[in-house]
Specification:
The chain has 14 helices and five strands. It has helices spanning about 1-15, 35, 45-70, 80-85, 90-95, 100-110, 110-120, 125-145, 150-165, 170-240, 240-265, 290-295, 315-335, 370-380, and strands spanning about 300-305, 340-345, 350-355, 385-390, 395-405. Strand 1 (about 300-305), helix 13 (about 315-335) and strand 2 (about 340-345) form a beta-alpha-beta unit. The chain is rod-shaped, with a radius of gyration of 37 Å.
Length: about 400
């Protein structure tokens, strides 16, 4: 119990540290003017710190001037005057970088101000500057320090105010309390804003990861399905003919290179160590013929039909349409090899996609986990569209998607 009470004061006086300063807006941290850029080792000018330095210099000058005038009749050592002026001004210059250290310095140099007041027979007119310094430093502590430290700093400051001002410390205590409460409220609001921004950023990162995962799944599933079928079929079709075998292997190599190219395009959204990005365009409907040709080489009989003006569609719609058709063909290769597939693209206000495949002519692979269908549904949903899938009467499978054009980019 005693340790829990003492710990906050120990942190406030000796061991505690303040949080790092929040990032400045561009208006408060403009680039360093050209004339000063070569003279100072700073790329930007921090206006808050500049204001604190100017205010600290003004406080130092006014305190030193007041003390000089007050001690004309009984001169005091200049070092004592400077020490008192420093104790009432320097914490302001430090409060932005080291708010807790600034408060500790003000507390440590308080005896010099009290001794000067004693030498002046109780005159404390120079303490006005000290009050300004104290309020500014306390605000910085409340904004930047842990909630265990702030109450301890407030309590110690109240005791110091009572010790300095005696019975007239009540207004000062009220002012200190208001400043501490205001600073703490600012800290709570900043923390809530930071937590909200962090949550939004995390959701954006997760959404980007999910998008990349969908792209990778579509690319890998399609190309590996084609390559696997080709690798199985080429030796049979070659029938021992070296020329036909070489041609088949060359085709497999071409499909492998195409898969690698698409993977690089997908992963291009991730920056490399030098901060560069791959700006290769994402696949669209202009590559539909290539997609159909790959499916035909894998043994599918693909029938394609297009209606309406399909040029100039929003890029997001084109990419989603391409991936939906690609995944549908990949599913047909795996689960209905040798089947007839019909691909239909129709633009009539939106883009309607219909891909159907008939029964397999030979046994297909085992059913997967359904990630491909889930990815197609998510693509349609992100554009505000819809997707329906299911088996057809007489065997086969059907994929129907509707992608709206409005609002897509």
């Amino acid at each position: 119990m005693i340790s829990a009470v003492v710990q906050p004061f120990r942190l406030a006086l000796f061991r505690g540290e303040a949080d790092p300063a929040p990032p400045r807006s561009r208006r408060l941290r403009p680039p360093m003017p050209g004339l000063l850029r070569g003279l100072l080792p700073f790329g930007h000018l921090d206006l808050v710190q500049v204001a604190d330095l100017l205010l600290a210099w003004a406080l130092f000058g006014t305190v030193l001037s007041d003390l000089t005038n007050l001690t004309e009749a009984a001169p005091q050592p200049m070092w004592l005057l400077c020490l008192t002026a420093t104790g009432l001004s320097l914490p302001v210059a430090l409060r932005d970088r080291w708010p807790l250290a600034a408060w500790r310095l003000a507390l440590a140099l308080l005896p010099s101000a009290l001794w000067m007041s004693h030498l002046l027979d109780g005159v404390r007119s120079f303490m006005t500057q000290g009050a300004i310094m104290c309020l500014l430093v306390l605000y910085s502590v409340a904004v930047r320090c842990d909630r265990r430290i702030t109450p301890a700093v407030w309590a110690i400051s109240l005791v110091a105010a009572w010790f300095v001002l005696g019975e007239s410390a009540v207004p000062a205590g009220i002012a200190l309390s208001v400043v501490v409460l205001f600073g703490y409220n600012v800290r709570v609001r900043r923390s809530a804003t930071l937590s909200r921004d962090t949550a939004v950023e995390e959701r954006s990162v997760l959404a980007e990861r999910a998008r990349i995962a969908r792209e990778l799944h579509d690319v890998v599933a399609h190309h590996l399905s084609v390559i696997a079928i080709q690798a199985e079929a080429v030796p049979l079709e070659a029938g021992g003919d070296p020329a036909r075998l070489d041609a088949g292997l060359a085709q497999i190599r071409g499909l492998s290179l195409e898969a690698i190219k698409e993977l690089r395009q997908v992963l291009g959204v991730l920056r490399d160590e030098d901060g560069r990005t791959d700006t290769a365009p994402a696949p669209g409907l202009d590559r539909m013929d290539e997609l159909v040709a790959n499916a035909r080489t894998a043994g599918l009989a693909v029938l394609e039909k297009r209606s309406g003006e399909l040029d100039g569609l929003p890029k997001a719609v084109e990419v989603s349409a391409y991936r939906i058709v690609q995944e549908s063909l990949s599913n047909a290769m795996r689960h209905a090899p040798g089947s007839t597939v019909a691909v239909e693209l129709v633009r009539d206000g939106g883009l309607r996609i219909r891909v159907t495949n008939g029964p397999a002519s030979r046994p297909g692979g085992p059913r997967g986990a359904g990630h491909g269908l889930l990815g197609m549904r998510e693509r349609a949903s992100l554009l505000g569209g819809s997707l329906e899938t299911g088996p057809m009467e007489g065997g086969g499978f059907e994929v129907k998607a509707v992608l709206p054009l409005e609002g897509a980019s």
